[in-house]
Design goal:
Blueprint (H helix, E strand, L loop, with lengths): L1 H6 L12 E5 L10 H18 L7 E5 L3 H13 L3 E3 L8 E3 L2
Helix pairs in contact: 2-3
């Protein structure tokens, strides 16, 4: 996750004016990685990176939860974090950073 977010800061991508990133839950549902552990690792890594990199161009990180179990795993991690807030109802199933 750290490399993924850091890559968005690469000089050759500066001209693209990236402000958000969509991260799929790669490995979700495999027997090798429990879903709740994977969601916790990915989401908290993104939160730490954004907190540790205040001048990061990426302002929003979205996690692609394709199934209900993936959604609930992500929601559980996000609700336990004081670093994010629920987006308005009109945004649908979205949580946003608490800034």
């Amino acid at each position: 996750m750290h490399r993924c977010l850091a890559r968005a800061e690469a000089p050759e991508l500066i001209q693209d004016d990236l402000k958000s990133m969509l991260i799929p839950l790669l490995g979700a549902g495999t027997r090798k990685r429990p879903l709740d552990e994977l969601a916790d690792e990915l989401i908290n890594a993104a939160i730490r990176y954004l907190a540790d990199t205040p001048n990061c161009r990426i302002q929003d990180v979205y996690f692609l939860a394709r199934t209900e179990p993936e959604w609930h795993a992500c929601l559980s991690v996000l609700q336990a974090s004081s670093s994010v807030r629920q987006a308005p109802e009109s945004a649908g199933r979205t949580l946003a950073p608490s800034r």
